Structure formats: structure tokens, C-alpha cells
Amino acid sequence: MGPLLYYALPALGSYVMLSIFFLRRPRLLYTxxxxxxxxxxxxxxxGSGERLEHTMEAMENSMTQxxxxxxxxxxxxxxxxxxxxxxxxxxxxxxxxxxxxxxDFEDLPLYKEELEIYFSPGHxxxxxxxxxxxxxxxxxxFPRTPMSLEVKEENEELIHKIASLVRRFDxxxxxxxxxxxxxxxxxxxxxNAEMPRSFTVSxxxxxxxxxxLGLLPFTPIPEKFFFCFLPTIxxxxxxxxxxxxxxxxxxxxxxxxxxxxxxxxxxEDRGVQxxxxxxxxxxxxxxxxSLGATGVxxxxxxxxxxxxxxxxxxxxxx
Length: 318
Fold this sequence. Notes:
Elements: H1 2-24, E1 41-44, H2 56-64, E2 69-76, E3 82-84, H3 91-94, E4 114-116, E5 124-126, H4 135-141, E6 147-150, H5 156-168, E7 175-178, H6 182-191, H7 201-213, E8 225-229, H8 244-258, H9 261-269, E9 273-277, H10 282-290, E10 295-298, H11 301-317
Parallel strand pairs: 1-2, 1-10, 2-6, 6-7, 8-9, 9-10
Antiparallel strand pairs: 2-3, 4-5
């Protein structure tokens, strides 16, 4: 055991020092991807805290606040129209217990007059526009606005229709594939590999494992966006589990794992934009940006714009 330790300990020490060195200086190994745009203000579901989610009115409201990114969820109607909708089943949004896929686009119901804001429990939003809209209408209305397009299930027809629309409107660079599932993301990449991709859940966990093993500086990263929940919102505005103690445990563990400035700085230096969601309070904006995040996804674009402008003025004054 003695001779083994004699060689192993110096080798391990050298590996640790080398890993830390390149973690802090990744550009010595990689040429970072230069983004066409940087996301400081992302509007979750188009800004669902100020207008009804995913409506044209919500998008227009967010754009008046100079949103850098519109976050959208996509579903497919029976007649093959890509519609912007978070849920496949329409009960929560409209009160109609039907799936989007069981209706033609023209038969889709109106949204309810008010909807609870998912990441602000007990708060509701209203709007004069209650119509569901197609992704094509969104592209026509906001032709050069970056959008994150989330696909929740392995629906190949939906994926290929999104990819086709993105190509038709010449939006490859400013349309982001997003999905929690790696199996879905694989199909998205196959349908349009020119679109930047975000981390899936399993890829995010793999990223953290590589970071703690010291292997991240030596591993290629094909994703361009890391959309991640901010652990401090668990048990406050985000309740992933029905049990309070399990939420608290998740908050504690994820806070320790994710809230690492060195990890975020490394990703940023390699051209990966780190965006925390879904933050609706100024104290959470402060936490995210103090960690070095590129930007924040929020239901309240007006509040985030006010925060960003105030801090920019404060920076200029100093």
C-alpha cells in the first residue's frame, strides 16, 4: 500500500490542480461560442403574471418591457397546427376537459377570465385577450425575437412541424429547443440541429456530476443554454413535491449542489448562458445575478425590467 500511495497521491494532487486551473480558464482548451444575443430578461409563458399566459397580449406586454426571450410551450392540434399552450389538457386553462390534440385549431376554447400564476401561488392574472395562438402567428408578429420552444412529449409530428416553421421564418439562430426529457431532445436535434439546445434534466445532472468529479473542464458541452430552477424558491413559490419535508430536503440539497459561482462562471466562459427560473420577487433576482447568472426567467417582466434598469443606473452612478 505504501508504494501505491507514493505514486497515487501526487497524481491525484496534480489532477485536482489541473482541473481547478482549467475550470477557471476554459478558454485555454475551448473557443467559446459567441451568442447572437444575451438573455437578461426572459418572459415565462410570455409573461404570465401580467397577462393571461401564452396570449398575444402577454407577448406584446413583455416586449414593451424589452424582453430578450419569450419562453413558450408547444402542442399540436388535431388538424396539425402548432399551438402555444403549456398544457395538453385544456381543463386548467379553459375549463374544457379536452386535449389540444383532440380539437382543430379553430375549435380551441378561450382561456378562462383569470388564471392562477403557477410560481406565485394564490395570485391570479387577467387579460382582455383570451385567445390561444399558433406558433406561426407568434413568428409573424415577432420575427426577430428569440424564443425558447419547449416540447414535453415525444411527438415527432409536432417536433418536425416546429423545425419546419423555424426554417421557413429563418429563425434557426434565435429559436431554442427546450425539453426536460433527453429522449425528446434527441428527436429535436435530429429534426433541426442548427437550433441551439438547452440542457435536459438528465444532462443537467450529468453536468453537476462532471463538475464535482473535476472532469467538466475536459468535457465538450454541446448545449448553449442552461435553464435551471433557483433552489431558494422551493417551499416558497415552487412546490415540486406534495410533502413539505421533501421540498425542504430538495431545497437544501439542490442549494448546495447548484448555487456554485465557479460552475456558473465556467459555463459562461464557455458560451453557455445560465438562466434561472421562475423568479418573481426582487430578492430572488438579486440572488440569481449575484451568482453570476446571465439572466432570469420571470412571470413579471415589468418587475424584472425595473430591477435591471435600477441596477444599471446604480452601476453608472458609481
